[in-house]
Amino acid sequence: MLDDHSRKELDTSNLHDALEGLPGSYAGPRKILTQPYGAVGYEEGALALRLTSFIEKTVVAQGTQFLLGNVHDPEGEDLVNIAEASGAQVQRVGVSPSLRDLDYLVPTQPLSLYTYTQYLAHATGNSEEAEKADAALRLLADRCTFQIPTEQNPAKQLAWSLWTRTPLLLASRSYAPLIGAWQQLLGRIGKSMSVPLEHEPLLTLSGGFEARHESGDERVALILGEPDAEMQLAREILETRIDEIIPVLPPENLSDYARNLYLWYFGAWVSYYLALTYNQDPKDTKVAELLNADFKPRVDEDDSLN
Amino acid sequence: MLDDHSRKELDTSNLHDALEGLPGSYAGPRKILTQPYGAVGYEEGALALRLTSFIEKTVVAQGTQFLLGNVHDPEGEDLVNIAEASGAQVQRVGVSPSLRDLDYLVPTQPLSLYTYTQYLAHATGNSEEAEKADAALRLLADRCTFQIPTEQNPAKQLAWSLWTRTPLLLASRSYAPLIGAWQQLLGRIGKSMSVPLEHEPLLTLSGGFEARHESGDERVALILGEPDAEMQLAREILETRIDEIIPVLPPENLSDYARNLYLWYFGAWVSYYLALTYNQDPKDTKVAELLNADFKPRVDEDDSLN
Q: Where do Basic and acidic residues bias regions lie (chains A, B) (predicted)?
């Protein structure tokens, strides 16, 4: 069914081509900014900091202070004002009703994470990392594009495995930030709720299935990353309690950044096809558009800048 | 039904009395240790660091380095070895097969969080905070104990609201660590899975209910803490999509620590009654006991120390 071209007509915003064209599409600033670096992020800018380790500090008193995503978050504004007063150069990167408040506009859209993380890679002198990540993403795009039939397409296959089931999301400790990333992708693009188990999952799993063995949805567990000792125990607990356990692995020999971006990108492809299996348009819902309306640049000002 | 004493017979480990007697029960070290402080925590010791802000740093090169929970976690052992080599005094607090490896034994059990956080409060010179938290917990215990009938008992009432429904867990930003705490309590004690929405919940909620409007369980959302702007938007999205939204508020004028410990403790009471509504024993399952078996002090050594 996912190989039938009529299915792709559900995708009215052509998110498919945005996904396919994502690797290598970064067209933002590439200048290396002054060290040391501090960064805070809100809404679409928050995940970028959890999936990368280019920047360790939250706030710096010199060098470059990044504010990502919603640059008018009250907490974020306070923090960067402190950094600026202390002597740091502030970079406001994300969305704002006024373009004058931004050093670089990253429009809200389901794949903006890629722009934020590639921006950070370049700005912190890691352009080689950015290129390696693009190369890994490009290989995956070739395998996940619509014309690749389900039998050879890992994203279509995983989407079918999730269909009509509730996904539990688990990860080896070093992959933990991807749990929240997949929850957001499955919700925003895949139009589906999932159950993240991010903190000490064994404590929750030790009892969580006792009360309602048979009720509710069927369940499938995704385990992100090579299993560590904790995930091996999680597998043992889950084996008798849920329908299926599916490992989700990145290729070997990727850097931490390329690996995280690869698994995020795979989650986006899976979510795309999951929406299609449910006869849903994978584009942002009206709710998402309403939430983002506050961030849209005002038209008159927009004109004046063009 | 929860007011019927036969129901309490399900509770074979008498977790009820452990809960009721918890406020003021801390009987561990009270000595203030040398600053600065660093702390890492694993398994039962991890949540204590998310719910408190007595210690800001992860690793210190002088002063006192805490290792909480599973003191043989490989990552934790590496980190404290670095701290120790640099000159910090290490405090190993938690569980180990050998008591000789511990400065303070905190046996694994569903309420051990209280012991870890009160220990940290005393060790970092915040005994006043520990006493204030105890006072807040004591008032709550008086309202949640089994003899208080459902009409006056907030924990029994909330347990009924969660019964046969899937709880979504949300929180204002400053309460976010309580989301994972409640997930663990509802799983380990309440024998129920819940759906945490910890990171940028609006992104997930914007699409997450589209694909499967009517399928699966009924849903109820708990919003922990006084609602901030983000939670007010979350309420608006949820109102048309789930059965009920229930705010869970701490008393006013509590310190951050007392407030967090209060909401954790309330979650434990609710989970206790939730297990009873499902005819479950709220004590640790066999799975939890198996997971903890590795941490049990060996009997022979235990004897030799008595």
A: 1-11
